TrEMBL record:
Residues 1-24 form the signal peptide. GO terms for cellular component: ATP-binding cassette (ABC) transporter complex. Residues 26-295 form the ABC-type glycine betaine transport system substrate-binding domain. It comes from the Bacteria. Transmembrane segments: none annotated. Keywords: Signal. Gene3D superfamilies: Glycine betaine-binding periplasmic protein, domain 2 (3.40.190.100), Periplasmic binding protein-like II (3.40.190.10). Pfam families: OpuAC. This is Glycine betaine/proline transport system substrate-binding protein.
Length: 306
């Protein structure tokens, strides 16, 4: 997946405090750094346009976007992963400045993924306990003797770094430059059976192409994850997100028909994975993939507008 969008329609602006060219009545939809979210955003926008609404797409960082939605300069984010939202999001929701409309329908899994051949080099995997004894099997020249852990891009949050620090794991987190860079490194490592441990997620088309296993923790129960300080022997791993649709606080009053659509809008892992593959593997632009899906699934999207 390349996070440089192949887009040719819509007004694009970076949420950095700069004024974006805008129409007062346009619904501004947040566009983030990964293809799946781009597809969620552009499908929503295409349906809204079919309903007669004016739409603008605004590029926005996964965490900075929430301040813009809370102050009304952005209006709609169809794919909010709740375990990567920073501090602003829950406060804005509690204050009523952001409205959670419901879940999109995706069922995610996030964690530390590795290729199956690493289990020969690191006996004890998939348990995280094995990582204490075989960090050097994951080492690179710039991290030795510590293992190398590829994490999300820096502006996606620090959860992997926090996990390494909390558990005292002998690993050095290295931020991926982008989703596309992470995938390129993943494929390169696996092609030559080099060591690789990477924070990644599902749904994603890569899991249909490459076999990946995921590190297992002591517990993933809500009780363990609910504010418990993690330590060796009590490692909860990562809270698994729900994927929420959110809007600005005045959205329902300003665009009641659009709000009703947002309530009905849903996507499954299977639908999104197939669309991601059309973009990232087959070379379609996001708009082309969305137009194809809209053409082939009219009964589905019209059902969201009735």
């Amino acid at each position: 997946m390349n996070v440089t969008l192949k887009t040719g329609i819509a007004t694009i602006a970076i949420v950095t405090g700069m004024a974006a060219p805008a129409h007062a009545d346009a619904i501004k939809i947040a566009v983030n750094e990964w293809t799946g979210q781009n597809l969620s955003a552009y499908i929503a926008g295409a349906v809204l346009q079919e309903m007669g609404q004016e739409v603008e797409y605004v590029t926005a960082g996964a965490v900075p976007q929430f301040a813009a939605i809370a102050d009304g300069s952005l209006h709609f984010q169809p794919e909010t992963w709740t375990n990567n939202v920073g501090e602003i999001y829950p406060k804005a929701v509690d204050a009523g400045d952001i409205t959670v409309v419901g879940e999109l329908g995706l069922r995610p899994l996030e964690g530390w993924f590795y290729p199956p051949y690493m289990e020969e080099q690191c006996p004890g995997l998939p348990s995280y306990e094995a990582l204490y004894d075989c960090a050097q099997a994951f080492a690179a020249a710039d991290t030795f003797p510590n293992g190398r852990l590829i994490t999300y891009p820096a502006d996606w949050g620090t959860r992997s770094n926090d996990q390494v620090a909390a558990l005292g794991l002998p690993f050095q987190p290295v931020a991926g430059g982008s989703e596309g860079a992470m995938l390129a490194e993943m494929k390169s490592a696996i092609a030559t059976e080099q060591p690789m441990l990477m924070m990644f997620w599902q749904p994603h088309w890569i899991h249909a192409e490459i076999a990946l296993n995921v590190v297992e923790w002591d517990s993933s129960s809500p009780d363990c994850l609910a504010g418990v300080d993690q330590s060796r022997g009590n490692a909860c791993g990562f809270a698994q997100a729900s994927v929420q649709k959110i809007v600005s606080k005045d959205f329902a009053d300003t665009w009641p028909e659009a709000y009703a659509f947002v309530e009905s809008y849903e996507l499954s892992n299977d639908v999104q994975n197939a669309l991601i593959q059309r973009v990232d593997q087959d070379g379609l632009s996001v708009e082309e993939a969305v137009a194809e899906w809209m053409r082939d699934n009219e009964a589905t999207w019209r059902g969201w507008t009735s």
